[in-house]
Structure formats: structure tokens, C-alpha cells
Write a structure and sequence with these properties.
The chain is mainly α. Helices cover 74% and strands 0% of the residues. It comes from Aquincola agrisoli. Belongs to the binding-protein-dependent transport system permease family. LivHM subfamily.
Length: 290
Amino acid sequence: METFIHQAVAGLATGGIYASVALALVMIYQATGNVNFAQGEMAMFCTYIAWTLIHLGVPYWGAFVLTVAFAFLLGAGIQHLLLRPLGNVPVLSVVMVFIGLLVIFNSVTGWLYTYTIKSFPSPFPTEPLFGQTYMSSHELGTLGITLAVLAVLFCFFRFTSLGLAMRAAAQNPSSSRLVGIRVGWMLALGWGLASAIGAVAGMMVAPVLYLDPNMMSGVLLYALAAALIGGIDSPLGAVIGGLIVGVLENLVGTYLIGTELKLTVALVLIIGVLVVKPSGLLGTKLVTKV
């Protein structure tokens, strides 16, 4: 029973990371109607920026803030300079751009930093916090940071005029333009926020997985499963789906298939959701009258 509780609680911490990346995927999907396959590589590249700053002598939390700011500018710049000029191109063209960005970020990172695995520091103490033994201090700190980010995003989109304008621009661009909302800049802001969230997830997962140009490939797959479970257009669903995937991954890996095959959990979940309930738990159901 103690092992079960430990794996379930640790799964919540891991699920928080999946929830962050899933939330970034949902934000991009709401704005463009497409899944950003380069989200994980963008997060990985930003994590390398944080590693560089730390090794230049910048304190961890200073590097953390600077990296989040860099990630925001990176995401906003990609949307404004690269995607906005594409206009209303076919969906496949946008998907190819995302795949191209994935390859570019992965290759450039490998060229600049090599593919040698590097260690990334954790800002949390090595001993468990509050005297409990079920979660390490890093797992507990990761869960706390994830929940804090989600709370800030909720307040931003729910209680600020800028957040409401972003939601309006994503849901109905034409009507938003009629009331004076600059849809292009709202989409760039959404991309910036999604990139910043991904960077936070990358810096939280790097101490566990070690820093490597391919470290986010599996995380992105789990995050995609989380987004599909919760509903690809539902931010709340992405959070719930991330926690579900994190717990299931740990429990199934411990009791059924072993840690070597845990990645198959995400694939099975993706296929199962698409077959049984394509809209996810909280996603919008499309109804067509015939």
C-alpha cells in the first residue's frame, strides 16, 4: 500500500508537468486549430538557455525569470514573424511548419550544445519537505510551481481585460476585429504565454530526465495524451488530463508493464480517447445537423 501511495502521489507531480505542456498545446490549438508539434523542442531549447545562464553565474531564480521572458519573446516572435505571414494556408502547410520548427530547434541545440547528456540543478533541497516521505522536495516543488502557474493563468484569462481579449480573439477572430481587438497581437501574446509555460515545464523536468536535446519528446507525447483526454480545446481539461496521465503512467509502469514500456501508456491513451470519446472529458462536442 505504501508503494501504491508513493507512486500515485509522485504521479501527481509528474502529471503537473504534463498538464503544463498540455495547457500550452491547448492554447495554441485554440488560436490556430492545430497542434504545435514543436512545443516540446521550444521548451527544451529554452531550458538550455537557463542552463547557460546558470553556468555563467546567474542565480537559479534569476535564470528562471530570464528564461521565461526569453521563451515568451521566442513564442511571440515565431507567431508574428513566421506564422502570421502564412495567412489562410492549408492545414497541412501549418503542420509542416511545426514539424520544421521541431527539427530546427533540435538540430540547432545539438549543434550548439552537442548531444551529450548534461545535469540540470534543482532549486529545491535534497531532503523531503515537511517531514513526509511520499514525495521528494523536487516533486513537491514542481507540483507547487505548476499549480501557481495555472492559478496565475486562470486569474489572467478570467479577470483581466487583456485575457478576455485573448479569449475572444481565439474563439471568434472576425467579431473581435469588429470591436477593435488586434487579433494578430493577441495571437502572438498567446504564443508567447504558451512558450513561457513550456519553458517552466522544461526547467522542472530537466533535473529528473537530465538535459538532452531529445528530453522533451516523451513529455510531449504524454502531454498530447493529457490534452486529448481532457479535451483539446479545454484548458481545465488539459490540467485534469495531465494529472490523470501522470498517475496512470506511474501505476501502470510499476504494477503491469515495467518502467521500460511506460511510454506505451500514452499511445494507448491517445488511441483509446480518439476511438471512445474524441472530444475528451471537457472538450467541445461538435454537432452537425443533416
